[in-house]
Amino acid sequence: MAMSQLKTTIGHGVDDIPSTPGKFKPEKSSPFFFNRVRWYTSLSKLTLWFFLSLCLLLFLFFASPSSSPPRRHLNGGAWGGPDWERRVRLSARVRATNKAGHTVLVTGAAGFVGTHVSMALRRRGDGVLGLDNFNDYYDPSLKRARQKLLERSGIFVVEGDINDEALLKKLFDVVAFTHVMHLAAQAGVRYAMKNPKSYINSNIAGLVNLLEVCKSAVPQPAIVWASSSSVYGLNSKVPFSENDRTDQPASLYAATKKAGEEITHTYNHIYGLSITGLRFFTVYGPWGRPDMAYFFFTKDMLKRKQITVFEGPNHSTVARDFTYIDDIVKGCLGALDTAKKSTGTGGKKKGPAQYRIFNLGNTSPVSVNDLVSILEKHLKVKANKKIMLLPRNGDVQFTHANITLAERELGYKPSTDLHTGLKKFVRWYLSYYSGSKKKTSCSWKLDLQWACYGQDRFFKIYRPEKI
Ligand SMILES: O=C(O)[C@H]1O[C@H](OP(=O)(O)OP(=O)(O)OC[C@H]2O[C@@H](n3ccc(=O)[nH]c3=O)[C@H](O)[C@@H]2O)[C@H](O)[C@@H](O)[C@H]1O
């Protein structure tokens, strides 16, 4: 059919369609009759095929196994469905040989402390389910590497946010957690100047969301959570004791942790949730956080980059009660083991519930200058230091923990000094970053030789000057 003829035929057809198709009487003698019928036939065929395809698509959608129950998507992750629930249950299952084991939900499980605590719990046979939103506050690939480590130990890390109420409720529907180890938080004291809302979102809103779900859970879990040494703020009395004032925070981070202590107290008071807050003192070690000074000093020193070392007014010392991760883990496990059951049911308190706060520090502060000297020894690199007056952007000049209470109640006894702890950290750092840089850059070659042949050989080849 010629194009002009087709246009004419269609033009006629559209105009001629009667409002009541049944009343349509074909005019056999019309020269346009056959074209018109063919056009109507193909239109109805098209409609029929479209309708059938739609039915098929709808059928496939509703009949597919993943459509019931629904899967939810978060930050690229997904949750829900029978397979997911099976993994959640399996991960949270207490080992048969550990009759008194806990069933623990660890929030922030792919974080530094979260990973170590989860592994330690798993090693002794507790059931552990991880939760982490894998945000990009620092390199998420490190969090993914920690996740792999956890998965190798049979720990499933659910990808999701503590602000997702539906997800938290689902987790408590699937597993009757006896404990929650709440470590998910927005960390870092200086970053609060850049992104204040992230602190409110995680450390306040997220905490409240978690407590809301825990208060309604049956049974209610006991909660152990990470507060911070930063709540002591600008206090000058040392060492810091749990009953010292905590009303002079120097950073928004500190303020949100302090708020967390008050908020958890409220939930303890009203709903009978068993609460233990742990004030961590500058935790460091293998698999640590790249935003912390000991970590980025190491990185920069190896690259021969300048590092900024803070000092107080009149060249006074800035110091921290640096605490090694293994000691912190022992403190966390001690807190979980001594936590009493929550006393509420159905969101109602049935009796007074345990409320505790402990310092988990090392009790021997070390100046940042000494921290750098120790790193120089382990790395065999002379630091290129720029000394700067401690900026007023969240830092406090010193921290020092009194740990008498934790010693007595939790059996907490830190045993790793900074020299030993940093040695372990440096060993991990070198092996981790030599392994993960494989074939990506020429600097990998340097690191690999270091890892393969040891530090001496590495420095014999590459160190530009003798230290
Ligand atoms: O105990 C806590 O509750 C907190 O500990 C940690 O905070 P901080 O003790 O401040 O650790 P971190 O930043 O490593 O600085 C260490 C030292 O290096 C100094 N510092 C820092 C940076 C720099 O460029 N130069 C420098 O001298 C700096 O002045 C400081 O004296 C956690 O990050 C925080 O999330 C929280 O958990």
TrEMBL record:
Keyword Cytoplasm present in the record's keywords: the answer is no
What keywords does the record list, in alphabetical order? Isomerase, Membrane, NAD, Transmembrane, Transmembrane helix
Q: Which InterPro entries match?
A: Epimerase_deHydtase, NAD(P)-bd_dom_sf
What does UniProt give as GO cellular component? Golgi cisterna membrane
Question: Membrane topology per the record?
Answer: Multi-pass membrane protein
Keyword Transmembrane helix assigned: yes
Reaction catalyzed:
UDP-alpha-D-glucuronate = UDP-alpha-D-galacturonate
* Coiled coil location: none
Specify the protein name: UDP-glucuronate 4-epimerase
Q: Which domain of life is it from?
A: Eukaryota
Q: Where in the cell is it found?
A: Golgi apparatus, Golgi stack membrane
On subunit structure and binding partners, the annotation says: Homodimer.
Q: Which residues cross the membrane?
A: 46-64
Q: What terms describe the molecular function in GO for this protein?
A: UDP-glucuronate 4-epimerase activity
Q: What is its EC number?
A: 5.1.3.6
SUPFAM superfamilies the record matches: NAD(P)-binding Rossmann-fold domains (SSF51735)
What family is it from?
Belongs to the NAD(P)-dependent epimerase/dehydratase family.
